[in-house]
Write a structure and sequence with these properties.
Radius of gyration: 16 Å
Family: Belongs to the SUA5 family.
Enzyme class: transferase
Helix content: 25-40%
Number of helices: 7
Strand order of the largest sheet: 2-3-7-4-6-5-9-10
Subcellular location: Cytoplasm
CATH architecture: Alpha-Beta Complex
CATH superfamily: DHBP synthase
Number of strands: 10
Largest sheet: 8 strands, mixed
Structural class: alpha/beta
Distance between the termini: 49 Å
Order of helices and strands: EHEEHEHHEEHEHEEEH
Main location: cytoplasm
Keywords: ATP-binding, Cytoplasm, Nucleotide-binding, Nucleotidyltransferase, Transferase, tRNA processing
Shape: globular
Strand content: 15-25%
CATH topology: DHBP synthase
Number of domains: 1
């Protein structure tokens, strides 16, 4: 039985187990960053598709990024407007980032703060987690806890959340391009960056 209470899920995550919980977009699979390889294995996911570092607060995520003072100010302005929310920022990473998060290019990392009370409650206790949508690679995201349990019986899921489908679209993914000092939209999702935010 992998369905557990919220305190049990938090303990399990801190012990290095893969867990699943709702977010503001689609339910996540999550694990400690240095255990990220276990998610790649579970999802049969290509190592060319990095995981997202999700945190409860922007201040938990900035230490993983590497940029000039001017760049950081731009990143933080965008984050102040859209976090918590469905925007993933792909930024240059420091060597604090476990390479398992992005095996092909550990010099960058996607990160976001979800607009979800339950996700933030978990992340406040666990610290930032390596995350991705709850599905096998190449298949649609799973929205219901019972379907996640069936697909991933070894993953800890929450017993006390609604089992109705979660309404949400994937996050927008915006990558910072250092040469042009602007954002490249890798995936258009729930958040739209205005033209002046992109430059």
């Amino acid at each position: 039985m992998t369905s557990v209470s919220l305190p049990q899920l938090i303990v399990g995550a801190c012990q290095g187990n893969v867990v699943s919980f709702p977010t503001d977009t689609v339910p996540a699979l999550a694990v400690l960053p240095d255990r990220a390889a276990s998610i790649f294995n579970l999802k049969q996911r290509s190592q060319s598709k990095p995981l997202i570092l999700m945190g409860a607060d922007p201040e938990d995520l900035w230490p993983y990024t590497l940029g000039s003072d001017g760049e950081r100010e731009i990143w933080q302005q965008v984050a102040r407007k859209h976090w918590p929310g469905a925007l993933t920022l792909v930024l240059p990473a420091t060597d604090r980032l476990p390479p398992q998060m992005n095996p092909i290019d550990p010099t960058t990392i996607g990160m976001r703060v979800p607009n979800s009370a339950i996700a933030i409650e978990i992340l406040r206790k666990t610290g930032p987690l390596a995350t991705t949508s709850a599905n096998r690679s190449g298949e649609p995201p799973l929205h219901q806890m019972d379907r996640i349990e069936a697909a991933f019986p070894q993953v800890l899921t929450l017993s006390d959340v609604a089992r109705s489908p979660a309404l949400g679209v994937p996050s927008t993914v915006a990558k910072w391009t250092q040469t042009s000092r602007s954002w490249e939209i890798l995936r258009q999702g729930a958040v739209e960056l205005r033209e002046e935010e992109r430059a």
